[in-house]
Amino acid sequence: MFKDVPYDQYMTEVTQKLSSGGVFLTVKGEKLNTMTIGWGLIGHMWGKPIFIVPVRKSRFTYGLIEKSSEFTVSIPFDGLKKELALCGSRSGRDMDKFKEFGLTPVDGKVINTPVIEQCNLHYECKIVYKQEMQPDYLDLEYDEKWYGNKDYHTLYFGEIVACYVKVQ
Ligand SMILES: Cc1cc2nc3c(=O)[nH]c(=O)nc-3n(C[C@H](O)[C@H](O)[C@H](O)COP(=O)(O)O)c2cc1C
After folding, report:
1. How far is the CA of 26 from the centre of ligand 1 (A)?
2. Whose CA is nearest to atom 15 of ligand 1?
3. Segment 87-130, tens digit of pLDDT
């Protein structure tokens, strides 16, 4: 069972999880897929709650999210470390990660993209803006450190249309 919570109630936890093992970014296209993200931002913009997720062009997820208008972010409070590592190193091009790693998709409340049952906290997001990174505007040190292979991120801005936690 899920309980709706204010989108900003768990911001500290989300930041902590992003930076220590990551969280699941799920996108549904011709195939349902999830991948681990370790970067992301929650904030307030255009009078809306917004979740920004960065996806590099090399990801299978990139092809899916480019054709989609939505995504979900699912976050375990504890555990699923192995699954996060696997979803962050294996590609949906080669496998069904949900099946392979025992993750259960559950229908979204508002959008058509599922969340992951085994997680505690979920965000359903409708994409309202995207921005390809522009290398010319990037700090040179960051460019050299993170983009030696020129595999830049595209940032997807999702309006948070539902945010809820699992309750026992
Ligand atoms: C802890 C962690 C954090 C990651 N963060 C990101 C991220 O923020 N953006 C990104 O594009 N890839 C990130 N990755 C890499 C993708 O999760 C990885 O390339 C994945 O296999 C892509 O899956 P896909 O090809 O099915 O889309 C991360 C990986 C790990 C392990």
Report:
1. 11
2. 88
3. 999 999 999 999 999 999 999 999 999 999 999 999 999 999 99
Q: Assess contact for 79 and 120: CB atoms under 8 A.
A: no
Of 159, 158, 151, nearest in space to 133 by CA: 151
Q: Which residues contact 13 (CB under 8 A, 6 or more apart)?
A: 75, 77, 121
In this structure, the number of other CB atoms found within 10 A of the CB of residue 55 comes to: 24
Q: Is the CB of 76 under 6 A from ligand 1?
A: no
Full 3-state SS string of 116-154: ECCCCEEEEEEEEEEEECCHHHCCHHHHHHHCCCCCCEE
**pTM attached to this predicted model:** 0.98
Domain span at residue 124 reads: 2-166
Number of domains present in the structure of the chain: 1
pLDDT (tens digit per residue) in 52-99: 999 999 999 999 999 999 999 999 999 999 999 999 999 999 999 999
| CATH code where residue 155 lies | 2.30.110.10
Question: Residue 54 pairs with which residues in a beta bridge?
Answer: 155
